[in-house]
Every structure is written in structure tokens, then in C-alpha cells.
Design a protein that fits this description.
Blueprint (H helix, E strand, L loop, with lengths): L12 E6 L9 H11 L3 E6 L7 E7 L2 E3 L3 H14 L5 E6 L2 E7 L5 E3 L6 E6 L2 H5 L17 E7 L2 E4 L6 H6 L6 E3 L8 E3 L1
Parallel strand pairs: 1-2, 3-5, 10-12
Antiparallel strand pairs: 2-3, 3-4, 5-6, 6-7, 8-9, 9-10, 11-12
Protein name: Phenazine biosynthesis protein
GO molecular function, one term: isomerase activity
Pfam families: PhzC-PhzF
């Protein structure tokens, strides 16, 4: 576990070492169960490998795997550099791409985060607005049936950009745990509602 120096502050991160001999037998669904058991914002699985090569990591939050997330990537990079004082740089291999992590002058780390930003064609996805029982057609700039733009920061992390007509509508918006697949965008994946 990675945590701040003062109790009850910060955002703890679970880091699980996966030795070479377990990498084939530990499935993604098992990793998800482990992450759910930790019940933290994120859990990182560090895969043992070539000491001079990229270090593969899998990032999970409760309920799903993520191709990239800042907090666990920074935490993993800091942890690895703090346990390998002779190294100035390591490479983390995420599903979003390789991320160089560089030791800073004051013990902090710097990352070069991969981005592959893409704005997709707007889509009308009827299920999206159904998940908002406290909103009505006039709350949406494009109405209940109107298309909304999609944006991806990396493959697999796509967000629907829904414009609302008022702050009152925004106050009535509810988070939903549902993920929706959008076949129209191919391997760019799904998005959270």
C-alpha cells in the first residue's frame, strides 16, 4: 500500500507484485476481484519482468480495468524509483502505451503521459439519457434524442460530452456505474454514463 505520511490524508494506492511464475495463471477477472477486495480508488498490478525493460502494469478500480489513470501511474513510478535508487528513469507499460517516469531533483517523479486524443462523430445513444430519471428533454441542449459528441483521451477511455441547459439540470445529474459499448467507434471502446 502506498499512503501519505499523515494518517487520513491522501489517496491510498494498492500495489500488487505479480511474479513471473504467476503471470500466466492470474487472470484479469481475478485481478478485478482482488481490486474489489481492496476497495480503493485504484489497484496496480506490477508484472515482474526484465529488470532493464519496461515494467508492465495493469490498473484497476473497483468494478473495472483502466487503460490509464494518473494517480496509480505516478504512485507506481514513485514506488519503483524509490526502491531502485540507482535508476533515474523507468518505463511503465500500460494499455494506453509506454510511460517514461523520471526521478526529479526533490524526490518527486515526472511522467510523459501518452495521449491519443480523438473527437468522434456525435452519436445518439438512447440508453444514455434514460439513466437520468431526474432530467427531462428540456434539460438537454440537444434534447432526449439528439446526438452528443464523444471524446477519447486514449483508446478505451471515451467520454460522452452531454451539454445541459442550466446549472439546475447539472445539480440533478446522477452518476451511473453503467458502461456503454459503442460499436461505431471500433476499438476506441466504451464510455461511462
Amino acid at each position: 500500500m502506498s499512503s501519505p505520511p499523515s494518517p487520513y490524508l491522501g489517496n491510498p494506492l494498492a500495489i500488487v507484485h505479480v511474479p513471473k511464475e504467476l503471470q500466466e495463471s492470474l487472470s484479469q477477472s481475478q485481478k478485478l476481484k482482488i481490486a474489489n477486495e481492496f476497495n480503493l480508488s485504484e489497484t496496480v498490478f506490477l508484472h515482474e519482468g526484465d529488470p532493464d525493460g519496461p515494467i508492465k502494469i495493469d490498473i484497476f478500480m473497483v468494478g473495472q480495468e483502466l487503460p490509464f489513470a494518473g494517480h496509480p501511474t505516478v504512485g507506481s513510478g514513485w514506488y519503483l524509483l524509490s526502491t531502485h535508487p540507482s535508476k533515474e528513469t523507468i518505463i511503465l507499460r500500460t494499455k494506453a502505451g509506454d510511460i517514461p517516469v523520471i526521478r526529479g531533483d526533490t524526490g518527486k517523479v515526472q511522467l510523459q503521459v501518452p495521449t491519443n486524443f480523438k473527437i468522434h462523430a456525435p452519436i445518439a445513444h438512447p440508453r444514455v439519457k434514460i439513466f437520468q430519471p431526474r432530467l427531462v428533454a428540456k434539460d438537454y441542449t440537444n434534447g432526449l434524442e439528439g446526438p452528443e459528441p464523444l471524446a477519447s483521451i486514449v483508446k478505451g477511455m471515451t467520454f460522452l460530452l452531454v451539454e445541459l441547459t442550466s446549472e439546475d439540470a447539472l445539480a440533478r445529474l446522477q452518476a451511473s456505474p453503467e458502461r456503454i459499448s459503442v460499436t461505431e467507434i471500433g476499438d476506441w471502446g466504451s464510455f461511462d454514463v
